Each structure stands twice: as structure tokens, then as C-alpha cells.
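User: Okay, second chain of the day. Same drill as before: sequence in, C-alpha cells out.
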Amino acid sequence: MKFMKIGTKPDTFYAEEATRTVISDIPSDLTIRINNVCFLLHKIPLVPKCGLLQRLCSDADDSDIVTIDLHDVPGVEDAFELCAKFCYGITINLGAHNFVPAFCAAKFLRMTESIEKGNFVLKLEAFFNSCILEGWKDSIVALQTTIKLPEWSENLGIIRRCIDSIVEKILTPTSKVSWSYTYTRPGYIKKQHQSVPKDWWTEDVSDLDIDLFRCIITAVRSTYIPPPQLIGEALHVYACRWLPDTTKSRPLHSSGSQTEESREKSRRILESIVSMIPSDRGSVSIGFLLKLLSIANYLGASPVTKTELIRKAGLQFEEATLNDMLFPSQLPTDQHFYDIDLVAAVLESYLVLWRRQSPLPTENSHMVRSIRKIGKLIDSYLQVVARDVNMPISKLVSLAEALPDVAREDHDGLYKAINIYLKEHPDVSKADKKRMCRMLDCQKLSPEVRAHAVKNERLPLRTVVQVLFFDQESGSRSTTHKPESITRARQAPIEAEAKEECDKKLQHEVTKSSSRVTETSEREIQKRMEAKMVRGDSEKGKERKGETNSTAKMMEPKQVFQRRSSR
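Assistant: Same drill. C-alpha cells below.
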């Protein structure tokens, strides 16, 4: 930061309540009133340097005490005091933090070269051109101070020239960046002769007001030089700087006026950031988009903003990780912790695009790989939110059922989520248990998971029996696919042994679960077992009968021939 010192006399200004004056043996003959502050000064030396005061005092005699109201002076009393001290020759220090109000006030008072040589405006312009615009942080600080005097700063060209200076430095190749900048990213250690990071400018620019920040980003994007990812990084830094963090815990909702004012400011920032996100896919990460969506829910952003974030997140949902999706719910009416509705909305947006792009996906297509990646991600998410003791079963089931069948190559992950939920919610009704387990496809469970399900006392008996019957049927299918070289005499003991083991296993599970079911359910299960066994025996009987008939038919011609020979 650079400063300019003007004047050599000591500061003789002093303030007493709402009055400011200068220590002097000469009585005051000029009173300047600015709002509630009264300045007791002297016509000499102020009038000779200020064109405005010359005009206002033109009708007064030199001996008259003149009172002037200057309530509309830019920068109000502090800026006017700087101009007055310059007129008295008192030492003042100028920098980027006070240049704008001093320059606007000097212009207002018409302290130009036409009034007196070497006047205040000329010195301020020289300082602005040679120091502020040449510096990186000076330009940003000066630009930020213009928010208090937007019209004056715009009319005097301060805003435009500061923006041009900042954008020019942003577009400078990193090898030529020689000025000081702020860069405090985690894991980054600035070393001597280390190359300058491409996003070196993002933190300093994030200090600006959102409207000025938008001007910078718009000007930088118009050059088409920085890649979209760099613009996205600048937006990410700005959001982290100004928007509330909703990833840790549920924010406290307050109805205070100050809080509401702050929320309104945050909403405006959020909506501006969303509107500036480049349309290029990957310009911002999916994690950042989901974070913005969570913040939008907390701040009560407009439906247009939420819809746009959901659409953009749906386009990149395939890139998401589990940690990207773990946000607390922002609705005060929700008892559960995790914002499962946010994930459901983004998943729905993704599925709309997926169905539109791939109406009939093939097994090895990119769209199938994509949807299966999403399927694993959602199942992992379900396993986490299932631990939430206040998570409604309806929301869990709704999210699980939103995926199409092709999304799950196996149901192991879904089974784990269901098991976790039943473990954390022991009071779940039988109807809800059946509703959850109805989503399971026993044929898509791995042998290890089926073995666990058979012993799982939390599952409904119907689900356990389905797993057992599938085990039996799969065992039968594997037996029928054995090579034909194995004789039926060798197959019979194997089938009998498998059948005996399956019957014992099934009978063991039915006995083990008898405390959980009624007697009617047991009789139904036994009837189904007996019917299945009878069907199996009848089928084997038909096979043996078929073999006997075929043997008889083969023997019949031979017997007829023998009878004919005996005749």
C-alpha cells in the first residue's frame, strides 16, 4: 500500500462535541455547517483555494462572518476536513482508503488549477495515476470505497479506471506477476522462486462488494482469456468469504431485523453468484453446486435460483462423492438431520437427463455405467442417513425407489441400508418393515449377504423365507446344469443330501422365527414347503416313469420277435 503526505504544519484541528475548529489567534469568520457538525474556520486560507466558497462568499464583506450550509458535500464532514486541512497547510496522509472521498469533496469544492496553481485536485489526480492505479491492492481498496459514493465515483471515472487496472493485472501472465497478493489456501506454502498460482487474484478480489465483484468477473470473462474453471474458482472463493456455512450443523433461525437484513444481503450475493456460473460443464465442482443449493434452502432463495442450481447439479451428479451430499436439513420443521430432499431433487433432475439421453441403454454403454455409479452412490448415502434416528421411513423408501432397476447391479448396498435402518429404529412396525424389504430382489444378493439375511432377526419372516427358497432354487438350477456324464445313480444321493440340508435349514429358520409369527403363518409356510417338496417328488417320479416307459417300449419289439420265433 502506498501513501502520500501533503502539508508541513502540525495538526491544530480539535473537536468539541459537534464543533470542529482550528487553534488560531485570529477569530473565526467562516462557519461551515455539514449535517450536525459545525466547522469554525477562516475565509483565509479556504476561500482562495475553493471555487465554490468564492461564489458563495462573493456578496459578503471581508469583515462579515459568513455561515454556509454544505450538507450535500460528498464524503460529508470527514472529507471536508481533509480539504480544509490542505488549505491550512496541515499535514495529511492520503491513501487508497481515503482517496475517493477526498477527491470527490475536492471536486465538489472546485479546488482546481483554474482557482489556484498546485491545488488539491491536481495532487490527488497525480497520486491516483502514479500510485493507486499502479498498485494491485491499492486499486482494490480504492474501488471498494466507491460503494459509499457510487454516483460521484462513476461520474468522475474512478470506478471504470480502477476496474480496468484490476482486470489488466488479472490477465497478466503469472510469470510477470511481481506485486504482493493474498493467497491463504490450505496446504499452500509460499516459497521463494515458486511459480505464481493461476488463481492468485481470487482472494483479494473477494473483498469487493458483490456488484463490484460482478463488474470484475464480467470484464474478465469478456476477454475469453481465463478458462471457465478459473472463473468458477473465483466464485467459489467469494462464496466461502461471504455466504454462511451450512455443512457443519443446522443454522439457528432467528426473526430479528438485523438477522433478516443479513439474510437478505446473503440472498442477493447467492443469486448473483449463481447467475455468474459459466455454462461450461465442469467450470465449478458438483460439491460447490450442492453447497450453494443447501445455502439457498437456508436463505430461502427464489425458486428460479434453486431450480437453476438443481439443473446444474443434475448435469454433474455423476461426479459427486458421498461427502458432497451430506448436508443438514435447513427446514426448521424437519426433525431429521440430513437434507435427503436435496439429494432427491438432484437425483430426479439427473434421471430426467439420463432417460432423455438413453431410452434403451445397452449393457456396456456409458449411460449404464453412469446410472450404476449413481446407484452405488445413492445406496452409500442411504446407509449414512439410515443412522438418523429421526429419519422418516417414507423419505428413505422414496429415495431408494427413485432409481430404475438397471441402476443396481446387485442389492447388497440396499440391503445394508435397510439393515442399518432397522437396527437404529427398533420400533418400526411390521408393515413398514415389509414396505422396506419389498424393495429387495433376493436374486441380486450375493451369497455372503444372503447368508447374513438368513440369520437376520430384524427382517420379516417372509423376506427370510424368500431368501431361503431362492437359495434352494439356485441350488437346484446349479444341479441340473451338471454334465450329463454323471449318472443318475450318482445324482440321486447328491440331490437327496441337498434336499435334506435345505429342509433342515428351512425348518431351523421357521422354528427360530416362530416367536415372531402366528400359528397361521407357520402352517402356510409348512404347506408351501410340502407343496414344493411334492412338486419336486412328482417331477422326479414323472422322470422315472418316463424312463420305465421308454425301456418297456425298447423291450417290446424284442419280446414280439422272440414269441414269433418260438412259433
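The radius of gyration is 41 Å.

User: Thanks, on to the next one.
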